[in-house]
Design brief:
This protein is mostly helical. It contains 21 helices and no strands. The model has no long low-confidence stretch (mean pLDDT 84). It has one domain.
Length: 433
């Protein structure tokens, strides 16, 4: 294997410089790839070929549908209903509104699949509500942004579809099933952290638990929760492909939002579709440009070099797993979620599988790592959104989030070292060994 170290340096250094200069990641990826190709004297027609190849994937068609479903349901009047359902479930606990925030994010995440949408939608309702009831504004914002990451794990998550494509065609159904328990585990760990802080600060409890009210709120929320059932059961049961189930879910979401909950009129639908196009354009540009970057990494043998470098540091599987998590966490501090998945998966997945980590399990690991990255400066998108929605300075939000980082890291370690957390459900339904 002949390795062109100079070309690797040109690729990585130019990318780092462009990111440091605040270029959008998609453009930084594309420009550094072009510079690398020019340095090697390769034809620039490769750029267009790889971009087209990157987005010419049938499984990728599910992404725009899932994004559209999330936007329609997120703007269709379901936030309040899910909050009421969460309140009926856990509002009676110490720090009840914090618990409601976390559980509502679990429900809403299964519809939006987006931490940013969760923070913007639920945060605009719950943060003022929590502050009015005596909760500190920085604590309320920290609970909102950290619990929003549950939506990245709970299906349907378009980021899991992107990972499945990047990993070489892993079953989307298995990834969907794999996310439920880790998502619930993350919610549980955040609830423990919230309970401890709420007990210490003497935050209030909600009304006593009422089974009748729980049943009433479940009935009101049923139409929203049914969208997730359609997607997951349709894919797992083999009735639909991921793309087909997503398309069906879009039609269902449109009917529910316009005719059942009446949170959208047809004018609002067109505005929601405009938002979908904006989001989708960003995602597809990232996928297309990351394909060029991935091509450069492949022809320069960077995955093999990375594997050899990590194994050269240690051959201990535990230390290698910790090192993989550390790499992903560092990347999360400087890059957004989609480009990390697209660029890091081809490099790190072979290393993960070499120490016995299942590809489906690694998908959950990389998604949660990226979720934590969304909350870390300097480019944590959800951190900025939460700060803006809660009208709290980012420095205070980061400080208030520190205990919850511990909860999230603990969940990440459990997912990393206990495979059954991710793999039990997929195996139960016949996926994997």
């Amino acid at each position: 294997m002949v390795t062109n170290y100079a070309a690797i340096a040109v690729l990585l250094i130019s990318f780092a410089v462009l990111v440091f200069l605040r270029f959008p990641v998609a453009y930084a990826v594309a420009m550094s790839s072009i510079i690398c190709l020019m340095y090697q004297g390769l034809p620039l027609s490769t750029v267009s070929q790889q971009m087209v190849k990157g987005i010419s994937s049938f499984s990728l068609m599910a992404v725009p549908f899932f994004i559209t479903m999330g936007v329609l349901m997120g703007t269709g009047g379901i936030s309040e209903k899910l909050i009421d359902l969460a309140d009926a479930c856990v509002g009676w606990m110490t720090g009840g509104m914090a618990m409601v925030n976390i559980v509502a994010s679990y429900f809403f995440g299964g519809i939006s699949g987006s931490a940013a949408a969760d923070t913007a939608s639920l945060g605009s309702i719950l943060i003022p509500m929590m502050v009015d009831q005596g909760y500190d504004d920085d604590f309320s914002t920290a609970v909102t942004i950290t619990s929003s990451c549950e939506g990245l794990l709970v299906p349907p998550s378009h980021n899991m579809v992107i990972y499945a494509m990047s990993a070489g065609g892993i079953s989307v159904g298995s990834l969907f099933l794999a996310g439920y328990v880790p998502g619930a585990l993350l919610a549980g760990s955040l609830m423990v952290g919230s309970y401890i802080i709420s007990k210490k600060r003497k935050y209030p409890k909600g009304d006593k638990f009422n089974l009748k009210n729980l049943g009433k709120q479940f009935i009101k929320s049923f139409w929203a929760l049914a969208a997730v059932i359609i997607v997951v059961i349709g894919v797992v049961g083999g009735w639909f492909t991921a793309t087909e189930s997503a398309a069906v879910a879009v039609i269902y979401s449109l009917i529910v939002s316009v005719y059942i909950y009446r949170g959208l009129n047809w004018k609002g639908v067109w505005k929601a579709l405009e938002q979908c196009v904006d989001t989708l354009a960003i995602v597809l540009i990232l996928i297309a440009t990351s394909s060029i970057f991935g091509y450069c990494l492949t022809i320069l043998h960077v995955p093999e070099l990375a594997a050899n470098a990590i194994i050269g540091v240690t051959d201990n599987p535990v230390l290698i797993a910790l090192l993989l998590n550390l790499i992903l966490l560092v990347l999360g501090c400087i890059m957004d979620m989609a480009p990390i998945i697209l660029i890091a998966t081809p490099i790190l997945l072979p290393i993960a599988t070499s120490i016995g980590i299942d590809p489906v399990q690694f998908g959950i690991i990389i998604v949660l790592n990226c979720g934590i990255g969304l909350l870390t400066p300097p480019v944590g998108a959800v951190l900025f959104i939460g700060s803006a929605v809660g009208k709290v300075k980012m420095e205070r939000v980061v400080k208030a989030t520190l205990p919850f980082y511990v909860c999230m890291i603990a969940t990440l370690l459990l997912i990393t070292f206990f495979p059954e957390v991710s793999l039990a459900l997929p195996r139960l339904f016949g996926y994997g060994g």
